[in-house]
Amino acid sequence: xxxxxxxxxxxxxxxxxxxxxxxxxxxxxxxxxxxxxxxxxxxxxxxxxxxxxxxxxxxxxxxxxxxxxxxxxxxxxxxxxxxxxxxxxxxxxxxxxxxxxxxxxxxxxxxxxxxxxxxxxxxxxxxxxxxxxxxxxxxxxxxxxxxxxxxxxxxxxxxxxxxxxxxxxxxxxxxxxxxxxxxxxxxxxxxxxxxxxxxxxxxxxxxxxxxxxxxxxxxxxxxxxxxxxxxxxxxxxxxxxxxxxxxxxxxxxxxxxxxxxxxxxxxxxxxxxxxxxxxxxxxxxxxxxxxxxxxxxxxxxxxxxxxxxxxxxxxxxxxxxxxxxxxxxxxxxxxxxxxxxxxxxxxxxxxxxxxxxxxxxxxxxxxxxxxxxxxxxxxxxxxxxxxxxxxxxxxxxxxxxxxxxxxxxxxxxxxxxxxxxxxxxxxxxxxxxxxxxxxxxxxxxxxxxxxxxxxxxxxxxxxxxxxxxxxxxxxxxxxxxxxxxxxxxxxxxxxxxxxxxxxxxxxxxxxxxxxxxxxxxxxxxxxxxxxxxxxxxxxxxxxxxx
Length: 546
Ligand code: N01
Known about the structure:
Blueprint: E1 9-15, H1 19-30, E2 35-38, H2 47-50, H3 71-76, H4 86-99, E3 106-107, E4 112-118, E5 123-128, E6 133-141, E7 163-166, E8 181-185, H5 189-201, E9 204-209, E10 215-217, H6 225-233, H7 235-243, H8 264-277, H9 293-310, H10 314-320, E11 332-334, H11 337-340, E12 346-350, E13 356-359, E14 363-366, E15 370-372, E16 375-378, H12 387-390, E17 393-395, H13 402-406, E18 426-428, H14 441-462, E19 464-469, H15 471-486, H16 516-528, E20 534-538
Helix pairs in contact: 1-14, 9-10, 14-16
């Protein structure tokens, strides 16, 4: 795990060694650029290195939750089940790092503290948290969209005498819940995956729920070898389909009509069919579930009835039923989540009606009572999209920080989610206002990495020294992103999509909802027009090209 390719002045510095950073390193090395990556963790994996909580598994199906750029990697790797668990994804990324010999370009256990653009040198000065300084022409972030964990600032937070963990920073050694009283705060994807697994082991599990989630069954199963053989034989076709799809998945809209066009009986039949199939396809049952309130209510009500049928205690069932628009927050998949509330050793506490008042040395106090706990699990999510970038002191032209630029309350943030005006030669892999987390993320990562690689090659060929988004192009993109999002129900519900989960965070909508295929087309057109929506300066003459 040592790095033998360390340089103080390289073409490109990449942050992160997850899906994004690994491919970026490979793409640039293949193109003959010198590249140095930094990773805070001791090994590759990114969020899959850190998210080791019980039950951690991806919601994207395994056969498409991988790189597609290399036929060799596709043929040499074999997934075991429909939804990959954390350990298997980590093993996959380690396999890729070995196979492509990537570790030699990555310095592990090193956090980048600051990245400052030097206008005189037209270079990025990069500072590690250990005081090391490097320079690079290009600065590329592959920091993940959901890597800056959020632990709410509860009164008495540090006073707890038991063990406390955030799902996103789970210890490597097994946490033993046997005979323990466990409290879990948060019922998003992480909390919902962890709950059934912890409940099986703990003496007692108390789930502290603020907003109930709509969860539909994952229905994981081991892959049939014959199916995998066919997948590998047909991967060129699969690759093409997912790269140009709406969300980077193989599943598409099941019924390309409004939910309201069907009779209640037909609708139930359709929902039932997709419910039985499992996976993320439920939100795709009809074409208007995310845009029409009445259509959405038919799906929401179907799930509420399923919860009511599953959970035996009607009072608990009622608390578990959400009332906002289904899928306006990130939809969740589960394995036996609702069933878990039928266990004797599981209690649900609604912290909307009895809020958490403080963390105490013995446990957690709500407005109604103190819950004594041995272990406290924070499944309280992330400062999404911008949070991981703000952890680094990134400064562009005139010393303006990214944080200052983005937190001034306006919508304008990025151009294509890849670049931002005032920060020349900086690229963000799956940055804010790109499809990122509203897609099968590795597919969006690949598209960004390839676009950035192509752009850098173009610059080298043309003798271009700097590239920087034009302000008007950025304004138009941010506006377009927000207008598209406003046509959906997603902007009408508080969630991490809108920044509402973090106290003081400016609201907006941080994801491009127009779809992976459409987005790819737009990015390709920008390149085909020789990046005319960017300000470009030539190496020698230092005059603007456009
Ligand atoms: O985080 P979340 P997550 N008091 O933000 C609650 C991806 N992911 O880690 O809804 C009490 O969804 C909060 O309540 P509320 C996926 O994209 C994928 O679960 O804000 N509760 C909520 O219930 C996912 O969407 C996978 O009212 C508080 C919970 O904490 C994203 O990561 C697996 C609180 C946070 O839920 C984030 O998921 C895991 C407070 N002060 C994650 N503050 C898979 O692919 C927050 N909460 C399977």
